[in-house]
Write a structure and sequence with these properties.
Blueprint (H helix, E strand, L loop, with lengths): L7 H9 L4 E9 L3 H18 L3 E3 L17 H15 L9 E10 L2 E10 L3 E7 L5 E2 L2 E2 H4 L10 E3 L2 E5 L9 H8 L4 E3 L9 H15 L2 E4 L1 E2 L14 E3 L5 E4 L6 E7 H7 L10
Parallel strand pairs: 1-2, 1-12, 2-3, 9-10, 10-11
Antiparallel strand pairs: 1-15, 3-4, 4-5, 6-7, 8-9, 11-13, 13-14
Helix pairs in contact: 5-6
Length: 277
């Protein structure tokens, strides 16, 4: 990383390496190619200045929101997969951060929405398959792809233990409870949700944080004005007691905070997490 200008964020990161803190970024970005390219350049600059250690991307961020149509088109699916494969090749521009996100993928002959983790030099690895799929106007997901394998398995990335609940997965709180028992620090919830439902989703995120005793982090897509889809941003970081620590907006589309992972460890020993099932 020689040649990168020293910044306050980078100096903070050097200090935080001595304590159990991770510097985490959430974001809201567009899917339309020209807007995505601009947002990506801005995100790269933000991550470099802030010295982010982990970045959460929105749900299937590298293509327009294709489940807006009820009509399944094989060529659209292939284009969405190809676009994500191409953009995954650009993730090194966020190095040395760990990257979380989702992508359309084929697994065992099934179309799925797959949560991944990427870091250098390991590359991209599958970590979760979205299981709970809506099927309604603008969100014909169960029509376009299939449920995943049903596994909600934590994984380690850097100093953090992480669990995935992709968008609608978040409402099935039994998995947040199970994640609490497995000691996660971060509950990652990439989304594609409308602006009008933001308050409801924040309520869900706060509940999931309290049940899991973990920081709930969520990045959402945001639609361009002329797009048929209606995603509304509002990405968040919520602490293990359900306090909203920050929320992105159109004016401030990126949010980076230092998260004390030991706070999640302590939360597991407090109410209501310690109560027996």
């Amino acid at each position: 990383m020689s040649g990168i200008e020293d910044t306050p964020g980078r100096r903070i990161r050097r200090f935080l390496t001595y304590i159990n803190v991770m510097r985490v970024t959430v974001c809201q970005i567009h899917g339309r190619p020209e807007d995505l390219a601009r947002d990506w350049d801005d995100l790269v600059k933000h991550v470099q200045v802030e010295a982010s250690e982990l970045v959460l991307l929105p749900e299937m961020p590298f293509y327009h929101w294709f489940p807006v149509s009820r009509q399944v088109e094989d060529e659209v699916w292939r284009s969405a997969v190809a676009a994500h494969d191409e953009w995954l090749g650009r993730l090194p521009t966020l190095t040395p951060a760990i990257i979380l996100g989702t992508r359309p993928a084929m697994r065992d002959g099934k179309r799925i929405n797959e949560g991944f983790v990427w870091w250098y030099p390991a590359g991209c690895q599958s970590r979760h398959q979205k299981f709970y799929l809506p099927d309604e106007e603008g969100y014909w997901e169960a029509t376009w792809y299939e449920r995943g394998d049903g596994a909600f398995t934590p994984f380690e990335a850097g100093e953090a233990k992480i669990g995935y609940q992709i968008c609608t997965d978040l409402w099935f709180t039994q998995h947040a409870r199970a994640f609490s028992r497995k000691g996660i620090h971060l509950l990652a919830a990439p989304r594609a949700t409308p602006a009008a439902t933001l308050d409801k989703w924040i309520a869900g995120g706060r509940t999931a944080a309290v049940i899991s005793g973990a920081f709930c982090i969520s990045s959402n897509r945001i639609s361009s004005e002329d797009e048929e889809a209606d995603q509304g941003g509002g990405s968040w970081i919520i602490d293990p007691n359900g306090e909203v620590l920050g929320l992105t907006t159109k004016e401030d589309p990126f949010l980076t905070l230092d998260l004390d992972l030991s706070e999640a460890d302590r939360a597991k020993k407090s109410y209501p997490r310690y109560v027996a099932d």
